[in-house]
Specification:
By secondary structure, this protein is mainly alpha-helical. Helix content is 71%, strand content 0%. It contains 13 helices and no strands. Helix 2 crosses helix 12, helix 4 packs across helix 7 and helix 4 packs parallel to helix 12. The two termini are 18 Å apart.
């Protein structure tokens, strides 16, 4: 099912309508999500200090308002005297960038393979779906650890690993939708008129599978954020001194008894990201489901 494009003049009205249709939890998720994205984009302007600037005489200072707090360090300092607030902003920026690139790569890989399986069929479809079943059967965290141990932990490799996480979900969705659409009369009419597979895919199939792909992308994003945080926590993500939210939690866990604020800020951001993305993903899924909209 396709949805008519919204005229440019009605975009603000449509956004306002969506806002009014959301419940209190969904509105909170929208506000939190937008706030986190803005904080990540404006990190160079918001951060009061260089995230990698060290000051050993200021190490392990608590947040403002507590004893021994140092002026200007809103969330305190870490074990090397670096500003936790600044590092959290830059960590949020890098974590969201890695997760977004990984999710888009997974969408590209899975969407392409699913489209190929649905259109071509036969042995090609059987091979692709066998790869999908294999991906589902093997815990991907183990695969990610193996790839990072072999290929290293550069940003390019990390994006590749994150992109391989969850591609099978896109492939299954696209393949199922293509199989369904290929039996609809307007597709058969296009084929009878001489349209090739590429034209059918671009003009008839892709516009009709955008909605489920957007929903899956949103739901998968939070899982990729957690995977990146897990890899960084284990020391296999982006290497120090560059900060990601997961690496900050991983390094700060040794100081939790004496300096819990080192972990609190990045852990809270990870929690807020997953909360906002999951709520918005569920909302989009419910909106895209015709049966739920008609209730």
């Amino acid at each position: 099912m396709t949805y008519p494009a919204v005229p440019a003049t009605s975009v603000p009205a449509a956004a306002l309508q969506l806002w009014h249709s959301a419940n209190i939890i969904q509105k909170a998720a929208i506000v939190i999500g937008l706030s986190l994205v803005l904080m990540a984009l404006l990190a160079p302007l918001i951060a009061p200090f260089d995230p990698n600037s060290q000051s050993l005489i200021s190490r392990l200072r608590p947040p403002l308002g507590l004893e021994r707090a140092k002026a200007g360090y809103l969330l305190g300092t870490d074990e090397l005297g670096r500003d936790v607030f600044s590092r959290s902003l830059y960590g949020l920026r890098l974590t969201l960038m890695l997760a977004s690139l990984g999710a888009m790569l997974g969408l590209l890989i899975g969407g392409t393979l699913g489209l190929l399986a649905g259109i071509v069929g036969g042995r090609v479809e059987a091979t692709i779906m066998a790869a999908v079943d294999t991906q589902i059967a093997v815990p991907f965290t183990l695969v990610a650890l193996f790839l990072l141990a072999i290929l290293g932990s550069s940003i390019e490799v990390i994006v590749l690993v994150l992109g391989l996480a969850g591609w099978e979900q896109y492939a299954r969705i696209v393949r199922g939708e293509v199989k369904r659409l290929m039996n609809i009369p307007f597709i058969e009419a296009a084929r009878a008129a001489g349209a090739g597979p590429l034209r059918i895919a671009r003009h008839h199939l892709l516009p009709n599978i955008i909605s489920p792909l957007v929903v899956q992308f949103t739901l998968a994003l939070s899982n990729i954020v957690l995977l990146e945080s897990t890899l960084s926590f284990l020391g296999l993500g982006v290497q120090p001194p560059t900060a990601t939210l997961g690496s900050m939690v991983g390094i700060g866990r040794d100081y939790m008894p004496t300096a819990p604020w080192i972990v609190a800020a990045p852990a809270t951001m990870i929690l807020l990201i997953t909360f906002a993305v999951q709520i918005l993903g569920d909302w989009l899924r419910d909106g895209a489901d015709v049966r739920l909209r008609e209730r």
